[in-house]
Fold this sequence. Notes:
Layout: H1 2-40, H2 46-72, E1 86-88, E2 105-112, E3 119-123, E4 129-137, H3 141-152, H4 155-158, E5 169-181, E6 186-197, E7 203-214, H5 220-249
Amino acid sequence: MRIILGEMKKEILFYATILLTNVIMLFRVELHYNKVMGLLSIGVSARTIKRYREMMKILRFLSIFGMMVVTGCSIFPEAQPDIPVSYFDIGTPLKIVETGKSNKIDIQDVRTTDPYNERMVFRSSDTHLQIDDYNRWASAPNEMFKNYFILAFNDGNLNKLHFQDENRLELYITIMCLEADLRTREVRLAMFVEVKQSQLGSQLYTEIMSDSAKVDTLSAESFASTAKILTDRMINSLAKNIHVSNFRSR
């Protein structure tokens, strides 16, 4: 983030300097024009005045054209080739706290909503988001979270007994929020979770899960590591809730 802000300041200063130079130039042209026209009007031929006016029109045009070029350029640069782009993920999941017997859980689908489907998102106010061009997720967040949940709910990571395959459950997830707040140095994660029974296709359990955690120093790396912590919390909570819901449904 510091790199981005530093580059933006340089770009703003550069274009502001050029714009100010053009404004001063146009002001001096107009001032000189009015002064000279006052002198030329005293005993000077109409042909000479006409030529001078045409010359001043050209100078005006060049000044205005210069300002248009400057103001038409963006002061917020896109990713530059000389600025390295960093990539992050949330690593591998912790072992789920044992909750007793449970069904086999298949991760069917994980989706993300805009604008959380590619780059890191930082919130600077209640209504303003900054999309970071220089710090990105190593893969699309929906794929990153799907792989994470698959690893979390596999047999080796669960380390517990399962029921027969006919009692499999299907898990559907939508990532609703994945952002870091620049004001509070807080990382937020929210997801909609839906669990269905494979054979019956009936809905067993739904929940909107959300969690947040503060960091001492907010950066892209602390954003990713805190997102991992929040995801591990949610997975453990989800495993318990699914077990309870499935037990009550039988």
